[in-house]
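Design request, tokens follow.
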């Protein structure tokens, strides 16, 4: 009898402890900030302007400009809920020239719903729904993109990425390299989206401002899903329906989450 009573008492204690551990933190109405730290590199090397980097087929490249557009950022929490940053402000230019002393370009998202987030999705470039709002519907970003050289013309549209510099191969030394991929109005849609899983939960709280360190291996722009040769016309990429989709697909594969800081 005593053993039975002791067993029941132990079960009750375990039940109480279990219930207490299952109590969920009340995050109702809480918001916080979330920072994305984009860190451009070439393989295992840091990216540095003017440095020569080797690619496949005995070609190399040096860049003086490296920038790309990120948009439509949204994060999914551990329960499957998705928080989408407000559309009007959900477009950014990641410009290597604006990096901090560690070479990181920071995007800070304010008023993000408090939650434990497990993955992030973002677009590379401008989607058709935003473009079809017309020039007047782009808000302040149109002027920002124009100032950054991320437009061809309104009729043609945005440059989603801009890599400028020089390339060298067996027959050319320091030839001009200009890779400017984007959609071409509504006739050629090169907008792509990327989804990345976090290595651990990203805890957004009123009192916590996590940082997500995203590495971008720009070597994969040229040696990614498809390896391209500068000698085959990929030294000058602009509005071609042949070359721009290849670069767009390669851009999808350059990103990975290296680590997360839950500050």
């Amino acid at each position: 009898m005593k053993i039975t009573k002791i067993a029941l008492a132990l079960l009750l204690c375990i039940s109480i402890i279990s219930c207490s551990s299952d109590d969920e933190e009340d995050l109702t109405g809480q918001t916080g900030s979330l920072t994305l730290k984009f860190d451009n590199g070439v393989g295992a090397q840091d990216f540095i302007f003017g440095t020569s980097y080797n690619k496949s087929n005995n070609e190399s490249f040096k860049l003086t400009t490296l920038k790309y557009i990120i948009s439509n950022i949204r994060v999914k929490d551990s329960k499957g809920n998705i928080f989408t940053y407000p559309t009007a402000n959900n477009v950014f230019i990641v410009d290597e020239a604006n990096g901090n002393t560690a070479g990181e370009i920071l995007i800070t998202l304010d008023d993000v719903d408090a939650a434990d987030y497990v993955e992030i999705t973002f677009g590379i470039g401008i989607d058709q729904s935003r473009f079809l709002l017309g020039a007047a519907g782009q808000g302040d970003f149109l002027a920002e993109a124009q100032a950054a050289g991320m437009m061809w013309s309104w009729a043609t549209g945005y440059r989603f990425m801009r890599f400028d510099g020089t390339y060298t191969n067996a027959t050319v030394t320091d030839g001009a390299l200009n890779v400017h991929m984007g959609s071409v109005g509504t006739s050629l849609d090169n907008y792509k989206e990327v989804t990345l899983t976090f290595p651990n939960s990203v805890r957004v709280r009123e009192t916590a401002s996590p940082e997500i360190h995203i590495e971008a291996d720009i070597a994969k722009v040229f040696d990614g899903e498809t390896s391209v040769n500068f000698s085959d016309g990929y030294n000058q990429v602009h509005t071609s329906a042949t070359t721009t989709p290849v670069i767009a697909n390669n851009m999808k594969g350059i990103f990975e989450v290296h680590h997360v800081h839950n500050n």
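Comment from the thread starter after seeing the answer: thanks! Residues 27-261 form one domain.
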